[in-house]
Amino acid sequence: MSELLIKNARIALTMDDARSELKGADILIRNGEIVDLGQGLITKGRTINAEGCVVTPGLVNTHHHLYQTLTRAVPGGQDALLFGWLQTLYPIWSRFGPEEMFTSAQVGLAELALSGCTMTSDHLYLFPNGSTLDDTIAAAAEVGLRFHPTRGAMSIGESDGGLPPDTLVEAEYAILEDSIRVVDRFHDPRPEAMVRVGLAPCSPFSVSRELMRDAALLARDKGVMLHTHLAENDEDIAYSLEKFGCRPGQYAEDLGWVGDDVWHAHCVKLDGAEIDLFARTRTGVAHCPCSNCRLGSGIAPVRAMRDAGVPVGLGVDGSASNDAGNLIGEARQAMLLQRVARGADAMSAREALEIATRGGAQVLGRGSECGQLRKGYRADIAIWDVTGVESAGSWDPAALLLAGPTRVRDLIVEGRDVIRDGQFANFDLAAAVAKQNRLAQKLAERS
Ligand SMILES: [Zn+2]
């Protein structure tokens, strides 16, 4: 039996059903699970002193392309709209292999962890030069985060009127075969699962109608979730109207892509009827505010989605379009962006933090296991030191989003230390960064 006690937190924002905020709180963890919250708790195991700290559930990232961490701020892609940006980056990505996928994922996951993230999804949709989903799963095991990789895909290359070059697309039978392989090999349905696999054709403009439908059938057969990009910007809507003769919401519904086992990234351009459809079917949304700003896609109607009852989580999106992977920063950006659109009372800091924790867990199908500090929940916990310069002068825990800090002091996943006193407990970050920079240099030289 392994036990850990978090002691004397200045305040714990539990994100439980009552949104309880516990002052002077202790949290007792046993075998990866939260078994008690309160005051004066004792343990025979290790104690973490959380005096002067705000404690929150670990943040949940619902959309990322970890491989892109190796192509941040690439010249030529810095100022482009979505489609132009993709066309700049495809040739660079086509030179990736297993080493690039593994290292880039390690660095992206480490960056997320430092910003309070305990669970992340990943959307990997290109597999050049022998790379596989296995590369990123190995990286997540080393860094120590709870991981929801999705087996993405592109099948319509340039010669068939698609956007990606032919070298980056796969045959649809091969996509389905490998999807079955990775689900059978890695997907874990248990509540304490560290890896759950989903299926994720890249977007309606890079795979066929048939593959969208077959992926949905396969996911339901296997009991795994579905993920893709949807309604990201005006070009995306225009493409859907022209090629499919309908809006993206209709396309998704026709092909089985709505339900509580589905979540779509972006959804910037959902209209009122589509928001109702998502609410009715409990279809989730990964809101990616920084990426939407960076690519000039627009402001997602998150206020309207939340008011209608659509499950919403946050995503940092790939580091080629953010270009950072700081999840607490993303929560702040989500709050600010709704305020730009709808005024200062459009979203509170507490609501943004709720979306980043409880909201994300619900979107990933883990709402009864993760995303809250609550008895019986998995011990995924972020501890924020609020005695530093960013927080000096604040006394409300909402300052975490309004002021800072933007890095955790400690991070616990499944009851295990991932970050201790600001440093990784079991992962060599310096070595991963050095390797990443060597690989980036090689890509830059050949670009
Ligand atoms: Zn994306």
Automatic annotation (TrEMBL):
Key words, A-Z: Hydrolase, Metal-binding, Zinc
Highest taxon, organism lineage: Bacteria
Entry annotated with the keyword Hydrolase: yes
Gene3D superfamilies: Metal-dependent hydrolases, Urease, subunit C, domain 1
Keyword Hydrolase among record annotations: yes
Domain Amidohydrolase-related: 54-415
InterPro entries given in the database record: Amidohydro-rel (IPR006680), Metal-dep_hydrolase_composite (IPR011059), Metal_Hydrolase (IPR032466), MTA/SAH_deaminase (IPR050287)
GO MF annotations in UniProt: deaminase activity; hydrolase activity, acting on carbon-nitrogen (but not peptide) bonds, in cyclic amidines; metal ion binding
UniProt-listed Pfam families: Amidohydro_1
PANTHER family: AMIDOHYDROLASE-RELATED DOMAIN-CONTAINING PROTEIN, AMINOHYDROLASE SSNA-RELATED
NCBIfam families named among the record's database cross-references: PRK08203.1 (NF006055)
Family label: Belongs to the metallo-dependent hydrolases superfamily. ATZ/TRZ family.
The protein, known as: Cytosine/adenosine deaminase-related metal-dependent hydrolase
Taxonomic lineage from the root: Bacteria, Pseudomonadati, Pseudomonadota, Alphaproteobacteria, Rhodobacterales
